[in-house]
What we know:
This protein is mainly β.
Amino acid sequence: MRILHGFMAAAALAAALLPATAGAEGLRGFLELSYVNSDNQSTDAGNVTTTTKSSSILQRYNLSLDRMLYPTLRFTGGGTVDYTMTRAELNDNQLDTTLLKVSPFLDLTLGTPLYSAGLGYNRRQEISDTEGIASSNIIHENYNAKLSLRPEGLPSLEFLYTRTNSYDADRQFQDVVLNSYNLGSRYKPVEQVELNYQGLYTDATDNLTRNNTTVLTHTGRVTYNDQFWQDRVTLYANYNISSQETNSALFRLFPTAGLSALTDTPLLVTLAANPALVDGNLNTGSNVTIGIQPVGGDIRPRNLGFDFGGAVTVNRIRVWLNTDLPSDIENRFSWTIYTSSDNLNWTLVQLLPSAPFRSNEAGTGWFYELGFSGATSRYLKVVTSPLPLGTVSLVNPTANLTDIQVTELEGFVQFEDVQRRTTSQVSHVLDTNMRVRILENPNLNYELSYYYDRSDSDFFSTSRYILSNGLSASHRFNQYLSTSARFAREDSKENQGARVSYIYSALLTATPLPTLTHSLVFSGRNEEIDGRKSDTNSLFLNNSATLYQGVDVNLNGGYSMATAESGQKTNTTIVTFGLTLLPHSTLTVNASYSGNMTEQTGGGLPDNSTFTHRGDLSAAFNPLRSVYLFGAFGVIMEKNKDMVTTRNIGGTWSPFRDGALQLSFSYNEAYNSSANQKDRTIVPSMRWNIRGGSYLDMSYLYLKSTSVSQSSESRTFSSTLRFAF
Length: 725
């Protein structure tokens, strides 16, 4: 209550001091005060009760200035200060934490149509002090300078220099300096041709480990796009060449594929392709989560791996995450390293009970650094398990411990300092497409595409190509009937060997009435890889109709046949049905059914058959702008499993939607019979729009959840007061 009283007093003082108008030209800012109080109680199947309470208050101050010093010279500057006080209680344990974040910035930019230039500086300092735990003071500084030239009819030029310092105040745990020089140019000598160059030089020094790494990268791209012979021929070609030279004791390896799987048998499993694990994007998830899984969720160990295309030596792995972790959660993960020569039989290399958790130089990315004795193999993987249900952080009780996603996996070879060396890698990528219109009516086209990439380094060399030759045709017989078809041969060579594929498809569409549509689709693929054959063929019929105004229906069905390289045959039948009713402008009713039946035979495996039937019925009622009600019921039936039923009902009421004072009340109740899980949510809320940019938000969340393994009840009150000027 002391925090809440302080919050209300500060809010009253801010309201009294709030200026009536903006203070100066280009000067803006805001004051924000937030209070959150949460109380959660959960009981597991063993009748063990855990009580978690937390309260926090956030003070946020922001000020910025944007001003034109001269007609082409602009200055922007300002900063944000956040101060958070948190008290957390887990059963009888109490923990107080304070966190101060200071983020100033300055930018000076000069801009004309011919050239532009700029200087910038920003800093982020985070001071955390937790009772009983050593305090931390982390600083990230960034300096930058840029110059851009855009002469008419000549190549453009873009230069950017950045210097980033990342360190703790005492320089005991982190002290990294990164200098980056980036030069780019773009030129179009003629309309059909575009030339691009990108040069990047980075110099990173870790002053604690005395490790210095320099990387020089050159990338060139040529793009050609044109049409010939009265636009009957379209040609596109793109060629990229990239060279990278690294001088370091730490060298990054580039795999040909990323792999992942969820399994309880890590010694015997084939990992599936997961390109997002090695696409270089540190911010986008790879559909692999290691956070707390929901009740009934998949808690099997996560297997994350590489395919290097050939045997390489690896002794360091970085596992990148999408979020920072509280200090008392960092060491909850253990890691196990495995290798394989065939992506099926795996050998244990080393178990790491824990690993250092770090951030990148800019403090915007987080990763585990897994150092181990080393292994030489084509396939390598790391295995870890998600956080167990009920995991709570005392350092940050409000931390989201469910949405922890792996965004990237990187492999390295770490040399001894005396073995510091310069390594190089050269990559080529060629992508071409050509389309020739042979006939106008019927429309007949010849399609040719070729893709080639090759990568050579001091550690490995990989290459692949894909050549496709095809014919496509389309024709409209009349206003009711049309057809299209495509046939292509695809030749390729990858790590798995040479592959020849024949791809074909045909589509027949009939529209006898504006409200009635039928389409029949046939598609198939025959493939041979080093003498191993496989094929897939399918036939689907899709129908949609508007029977009456407000009555829409669709009925679709199909059959597919597939034969794998092993000789196993898989036959699948799919049927779907959907109905949408609009009996009134305020009422919508939806009904749907889907059925999937599969039979597998041959291939030296026992015969197997499965089926899944699912039906759903839902309705939404919106009698007034301020009232919205909904309900849904579903049934799922699978072979050798109990029938699962789901239901969901709820609604919202939002009176005074267009006024300065807005109220809202929402209720939702969900049930799933698979774990006998029931969830009930009640949320009343209020928003007072004081004036432009200034408001008061208050809400209360009540959540009760019960299942066969756990029951929990939580209450959360939150409020935010913001004044802007």
